Amino acid sequence: MSFDTPSGTRGTRQPGRAVKWFNKWSMRRIRRKGGAKLMGMDALVLTTVGRKSGEPRSTPVAWFPSENGGWLIVASAAGAAKNPAWYYNLAAHPDRVRVEIGSVTTNVVAVQLQGEEREKAWRQITTTMPRFAEYQVKTDRELPIIRLTPRSLN
């Protein structure tokens, strides 16, 4: 499955400087506390490889349980017109991804869900956390859903 969701033409602005500070604080908390809830959601630290720089890039993201012990994440950017930068990093290097929850680091493979599989995951996500449905209303791009599967299960 390919990473093929284009940017939209409308949506909220991309997160700014205050969000970057909050993300750094959140990542320290997730790593220190063995996982954490951020804004009421389970969160993990996602580390990708920069598509242009080749450097590791980390960000906190909300996650939802997936089959086989994996995680589902949504490239929502809170309803921004553009996909978050980490989405493009995943697209460039879907097999060079790490997830951290507390002191546990897991190498994963990222796959963007499509079709019925995406719809099933979307129902699960929006039932658990309705805020994602609100994000979808803010933008005209379809919010990508990514399944992260531990490499040992592939």
Automatic annotation (TrEMBL):
GO terms for cellular component: plasma membrane. Transmembrane segments: none annotated. InterPro entries: F420H2_quin_Rdtase, Split_barrel_FMN-bd. It catalyses: oxidized coenzyme F420-(gamma-L-Glu)(n) + a quinol + H(+) = reduced coenzyme F420-(gamma-L-Glu)(n) + a quinone. GO terms for molecular function: coenzyme F420 binding; oxidoreductase activity. PANTHER family: F420H(2)-DEPENDENT QUINONE REDUCTASE RV1261C (PTHR39428:SF1). Belongs to the F420H(2)-dependent quinone reductase family. This is Nitroreductase.
